[in-house]
Amino acid sequence: MAADVGAAAGTVRIARISDEPLDLAAHIAAVSGPTMGGIATFVGTVRDHDPGARGDVTLLEYSAHPDAERILAELAAACAAQTDAECTVAVTHRVGRLEVGALAVVVAVASAHRAPAFEVCRALIERIKTDLPIWKRQHEHDGTASWVGLDV
User: Which is nearest to 11 in space by CA: 109, 128, 129, 123?
Assistant: First the structure.
């Protein structure tokens, strides 16, 4: 999403679903500005273990619903609107095959003061986990693969 999406108390500069590697610095640059005194970030990475895995996790495959990018922009705008402070948001979630250590999601939120930036950043990553239609298939060291968090 290239254009800004306005919210009652914020702006969404980036809301993307991407099959390309993520760049934290680009997200920080997108929310930076002379009125912004604090930037809160969250970076989710692929780890080598999971409570449901029988052994080491070797990679994840993320799949997204065709409406996921639109929904991500709506989630970002809704979270930014939950505070009276002006916040600027940049968020991207990866899809495709990700090796251990790869960035899976990046969130950057800027505001004049740190508290609203932290609040919006946390609210957004929590909403992404519960409301964004993205699913992951977890591959393990023994060659098995299973869908995580997919209720069928």
Answer: 109
Closest of 77, 73, 90 to residue 28, by C-alpha: 90
Sorted by where each begins, the domain ranges of the chain are 5-148
108 neighbors 26 (Cβ within 8 angstroms): no
The Cα 100–Cα 80 span in angstroms is 31
Cβ(82)–Cβ(91) below 8 Å: no
119 is written with which tokens?
Answer: 């609040």
Across the beta sheet with 103-111, what order do the strands follow? 5-7, 10-18, 87-94, 103-111, 38-45
76/83 Cα distance (integer angstroms)? 12
Report pLDDT digits (tens) over 75-89: 999 999 999 999 999
Phi-psi region of 149 (alpha: psi -120 to 50; beta: other; left: phi over 0): left
Give start and end residues of each alpha helix (H) in 3-150: 24-31, 68-81, 114-131
Task: Give 5-148's CATH code, choosing from 2.50.20.10, 3.40.50.2020, 3.90.1170.40, 3.30.70.2520.
Answer: 3.90.1170.40
Q: What is the pTM of this model?
A: 0.91
